[in-house]
Each structure stands twice: as structure tokens, then as C-alpha cells.
Write a structure and sequence with these properties.
alpha/beta, Rossmann fold, 2 domains, 6-stranded mixed beta sheet, 12 helices, SBP_2_dom, carbohydrate binding
Length: about 300
């Protein structure tokens, strides 16, 4: 009777578990789904989930600025007892409580792209990202080469205070200030809205007819920047560096609107993020930080394999 009771109780426990937990769902939650960059993360994650025995969901807010929606998505994933979470936090502080809840529930978390603040230390197992400070310095080196290290350079950024922005834009500005005579104009914050970046760049170009260079620090910002340069008849006249590598930005490099783009391994963030969580679910250890790389792409190397591997 006791053995039968144990069998019945065990069956009841299994029946009570959410189907997603039994299937081994990995929830991939990004800053927004309305960006080719994040869709390329999705492609990498989808490729990595195959043959793992797990399932995957992909979600994100309509806009990167909708931080509350992303917090709710993490909370919902915790509430349905997913097996693991891959998260690109849109705010370094606001996502910390949700990640803590995941940790308390025993759900492994891989953070990608942008880090959490110090308050989130110990609540996730690994962080996969571009070394954004190194990327910012690489952009600064290219800008100094293109401008001769002097004149006005405008900085078109995206969301102030996001982990990737702090490293990418902060190190770009710091290196220019330390190693050149360049005068910084901005930074301006587009909230990752292409139309906003277009309007801001148009205003900057109008107010600074002597502008020598301009840096667009993420995909929608750089696309808006490129369109503004073309509309103002300044394409090819201002040294312009973008960040990320969708088709619009590739076309801008090919036609000379942009001098260069720095392209992150977005596919690799999704691929390696899901692999890390899969390993954690299996009880394996993972590195606390995984560098997903960045490539400087110009007209000279855009058709080379090193560029093709990261462009999307």
C-alpha cells in the first residue's frame, strides 16, 4: 500500500508540474523584437536549441524603452517554471529583482549583450557580450584615423545608462578626449528609435556645418544617422561610423554613406547563450564571462569571410 501511495503521489507531483518545465523550456528574452540585431540573436538561439531535448521561446517588448514589459516577461517565465533563461536586460537596475526571483527559483540565467548592476551579482551564472569598451576604443581609433584626430565629432547614442552603452559610448568618448584634439558634440539619445535618430542627426548636421565625424552607437540609431546624412547631402562628406550590421547599414558602407560599421556577434550571443543555459541545466559549469566578439567592417572587407560571418 505504501509503495502504491508513493507511486500515486509521484504521479500527482508530475501532473502538477507545468508542461513547459517538463519539456525543458528555455526562455530567450531580449530588449525588443523589432530589430534585425535581436532577430539574429533569435536565429542563433534557434540553431543552438536543436538536438538539446529542450524547447525555446523568444520574446521581447515592442520597444527597447518599454522596460516594464521586459520585467513582466521575466516574471512570467519564472512563474511558469522554465528550465532556463537567456536575457538581454534593457536596464541594468530594473531587471535585477526579476533575475533574483529566477535565481531563488533555481532557474539558471545567462545574461547577454548588456550587464546588470552590482546589485545583480550572484543572481546569474554567465554573461555573454561584446567587450563594449574595447569596441568603443576600436571605433575611436578608426574615427581618429578618418578625421586626423581633430575637429567636431557628434555622438549619436541610444539609451543612457544601459550596460552596453556605458562601455561602448563611454570608452569611445574617453579615448578621443585622451588621445586627440577632437571636440565632442553630444551625446544624443535616440531611445533606439530610428526616426528619433534621423531627426536628431538632421538637427546636429544643421547646427554644425563644420562637423568632421559622427558615430551611431547601435543599429536603429546608425540607420537613422545614415538616412539623415543622405537626406542632408552629407553622405561621404562626414566620417561616419555605425554599430551593428543589418542590410541597411551594409548598404550604407557599400555606397560610402558610412565609412565603417562595428558588428557584434549577435548570432553567437543567441547560440552560445542557449548552449550555456543547456549546459547549466545539465549540471555542467560554464565560464562566468564569454566574449562574443566584434569586427570592424569597411568597404574593403565587407565581402570577406570575417565580415560575412557576423553580418545579417
Amino acid at each position: 500500500m505504501k509503495n502504491n501511495l508513493k507511486t500515486i503521489l509521484a504521479a500527482g507531483i508530475i501532473a502538477a508540474l507545468p508542461a513547459s518545465a517538463m519539456a525543458g523550456e528555455i526562455a530567450v528574452i531580449v530588449k525588443t523584437t523589432n530589430s534585425n540585431f535581436w532577430q539574429n540573436v533569435n536565429k542563433g538561439a534557434s540553431a543552438s536549441i536543436k538536438d538539446t531535448g529542450n524547447t525555446m521561446t523568444f520574446d521581447g517588448p515592442a520597444a527597447e524603452s518599454d522596460i516594464a514589459a521586459e520585467v513582466n516577461m521575466v516574471d512570467n517565465a519564472v512563474n511558469r517554471s522554465v528550465a532556463g533563461i537567456v536575457l538581454a536586460p534593457s536596464d541594468p537596475d530594473a531587471l535585477v529583482p526579476a533575475v533574483k526571483r529566477a535565481n531563488e527559483a533555481g532557474i539558471p540565467v545567462a545574461i547577454i549583450d548588456s550587464g546588470l548592476s552590482d546589485a545583480g551579482k550572484g543572481t546569474y551564472q554567465t554573461f555573454l557580450s561584446t567587450d563594449n569598451c574595447a569596441a568603443g576604443k576600436l571605433a575611436a581609433d578608426e574615427m581618429m584615423k578618418l578625421t586626423g584626430g581633430e575637429g567636431k565629432v557628434a555622438v549619436m547614442s541610444y539609451v543612457a545608462g544601459v550596460g552596453s552603452e556605458i562601455g561602448r559610448v563611454g570608452c569611445f568618448i574617453d579615448k578621443l578626449k585622451a588621445e586627440s584634439k577632437i571636440e565632442i558634440v553630444g551625446p544624443y539619445y535616440s531611445k533606439s528609435q530610428m526616426a528619433t535618430a534621423l531627426d536628431q542627426t538632421t538637427d546636429v548636421l544643421s547646427a554644425n556645418p563644420d562637423l568632421k565625424g559622427i558615430f551611431g552607437a547601435n543599429e536603429p540609431t546608425a540607420v537613422g544617422m545614415g538616412r539623415a546624412l543622405k537626406q542632408a547631402g552629407k553622405a561621404g562628406q562626414v566620417a561616419a561610423i555605425g554599430f551593428d550590421g543589418n542590410k541597411d547599414l551594409q548598404d550604407f558602407v557599400k555606397d560610402g554613406t558610412l565609412s565603417a560599421i562595428l558588428v557584434q556577434g549577435s548570432f553567437q550571443m543567441g547560440e552560445k547563450g542557449v548552449q550555456a543555459v543547456t549546459d547549466l541545466i545539465a549540471g555542467k559549469s560554464v565560464e562566468p564571462h564569454i566574449d562574443t566578439g566584434v569586427i570592424l567592417v569597411t568597404k574593403d572587407n565587407i565581402d570577406a569571410d570575417e565580415a560575412k560571418n557576423v553580418l545579417y
